[in-house]
Design brief:
By secondary structure, the protein is α+β, with helices and mostly antiparallel strands. It is 25% helix and 22% strand. It has 5 helices and 8 strands. The strands form 2 sheets. The protein has a 5-stranded mixed beta sheet. A 3-stranded antiparallel beta sheet has the order 3-4-5, with no helix packed on it. Helix 4 packs across helix 5. The chain starts with 21 loop residues before the first strand and ends with a helix.
Length: 166
């Protein structure tokens, strides 16, 4: 049996929270669900030595370890046999923040809920899109928030991919 309150506990403490985004998706690509969430690429390796982008993560090309594909290269080559989708989601912005956050849930069109967790990264350094948007004077530092970014991209969808690829 559980108790709602336990009087033996102190009435002071620290409450922590963890943001876990909820995305909407499907196991099948469709007009609505078109943004893939990938498993770790089959050809992503962890090398013993750093490659030309300063990372040990990469892939082997002609017997040599080279940097793994950038976000832009991955998106431009959706038929890459090394990229296997877990699911497809309906919101590119929310997917980007799932990548940053490292975990989340996808509510599938079947009603099933799946957990997604960070498995690996491509070896390229992270650059904050919030900082990028501030540097370009798209959003002021005082206005900066996830909600402000989402509103900005809704109003300026053509800029979103360039910002994400930064």
């Amino acid at each position: 049996p559980f108790k709602l309150f336990d009087n033996s506990l102190r009435d002071e403490g620290t409450i922590t929270g963890y943001y876990e985004p909820l995305l909407y998706g499907s196991l099948k690509k469709s007009a609505r669900y078109k943004y893939p969430v990938y498993y770790t690429p089959k050809n992503l390796i962890l090398a013993k030595k750093e490659n030309s982008n300063g990372s040990k993560r990469g892939k082997v090309v002609k017997g040599k370890v080279v940097p793994y594909d950038t976000r832009e290269q991955i998106e431009k080559n959706p038929k890459n046999p090394n990229l296997v989708p877990i699911a497809y989601v309906d919101d590119e912005f929310d997917l980007f923040f799932l990548h940053i956050q490292g975990s989340g849930k996808i509510k599938l069109d079947t009603g099933e809920l799946i957990n997604i967790g960070y498995a690996e990264q491509n070896g390229w350094p992270y650059y904050s899109i919030g900082s990028y948007l501030i540097e370009k004077n798209y959003i002021t530092k005082d206005e900066m928030s996830v909600q402000a970014m989402k509103e900005f991209f809704k109003a300026n969808p053509k800029i979103m991919k360039d910002v994400f690829n930064s």
